[in-house]
Design a protein that fits this description.
By secondary structure, this protein is mainly α. Helices cover about 70% and strands about 0% of the residues. The chain contains 9 helices and 2 strands; from the N terminus they run ααααβαααβαα.
Length: about 250
């Protein structure tokens, strides 16, 4: 992503600003999610966080496709990630289930948010080091720790379950606070988590992948909460598998 700066040419193509516009749109989605959360409309607030996740996946790739990425755009993207995945979900969860706690709920929120900002800082430093001394074998197929967008989705899993089963008895606030803390620790852990950036498939199977993508999108539009619960469970199972493989590799 790019923004005009004094040391560049005085004019910029309007289309090159599109990735930044998308990033700012994601920031607006995160801020509006907090607003709806504090108004008690939790389903809308969660949908807006999910929209921010989608926009986060679009802006960087679009910037690279348009060859318009820059240091300013990268910083803007990182700040958006902190708001949308570190601050907004934690505040919404606090108002949803922890606002009546004596203080441990807020401690869990603070812990999760700090873990998210540390995760983003580590990722930014690693990205800069990779640019200075790129790996001849290419970028890694794994992240270190749970990425912040995935952490935001995982931390809202109790909300997905409550929306899917509205008659289900709510979890105790202590359990939710502990769960928030665990997700925060997973973000700053050294656990290798799967990255799909470099995944490739045979050309013959591309049509099946596109069909699967369409079916997943249809499932999200039709059975949003059930699909998100399923995705979250599958992702947790992938984390357990990654942990198992990591332990085997270290032996």
């Amino acid at each position: 992503m790019s923004l005009p700066s004094p040391d560049t040419k005085s004019e910029v193509n309007v289309l090159q600003l599109l990735p930044n516009v998308i990033t700012i749109g994601a920031i607006c989605a995160g801020l509006t999610a907090i607003r709806f959360g504090y108004q008690g409309d939790f389903e809308t607030s969660v949908r807006l966080i999910l929209l921010a996740c989608v926009l986060d996946g679009i802006d960087g790739r679009l910037a690279r496709m348009m060859n318009s990425d820059s240091a300013v755009g990268a910083e803007l993207d990182s700040l958006a990630d902190f708001l949308n995945f570190g601050v907004a979900p934690a505040l919404i969860l606090h108002h949803w289930a922890l606002k009546d706690t004596t203080g441990f709920g807020w401690i869990a929120v603070l812990g999760y948010t700090i873990c998210c900002v540390l995760r983003l800082a580590r990722f930014n430093v690693s990205s800069r080091l990779e640019k200075l001394s790129p790996d001849p074998a290419g970028s890694s197929d794994h992240f270190v720790g749970v990425p912040s967008p995935a952490g935001a989705v995982l931390v809202m899993l109790p909300m997905f379950v409550s929306f899917l089963f509205p008659d289900l008895a709510p979890l105790p606030p202590v359990a939710i606070a502990l769960y928030i803390g665990i997700i925060g620790l997973l973000m700053i852990s050294r656990l290798p988590t799967y990255s799909f950036k470099n995944v490739s498939i045979a050309r013959n199977y591309a049509k099946y992948l596109m069909l699967a993508a369409v079916l997943m999108a249809a499932a999200l539009f039709t059975y949003l909460w059930a699909t998100l619960v399923l995705f979250s469970v599958v992702y947790v199972l992938s984390l357990l598998r990654a942990f198992q493989l990591d332990r085997r590799a270290k032996k």
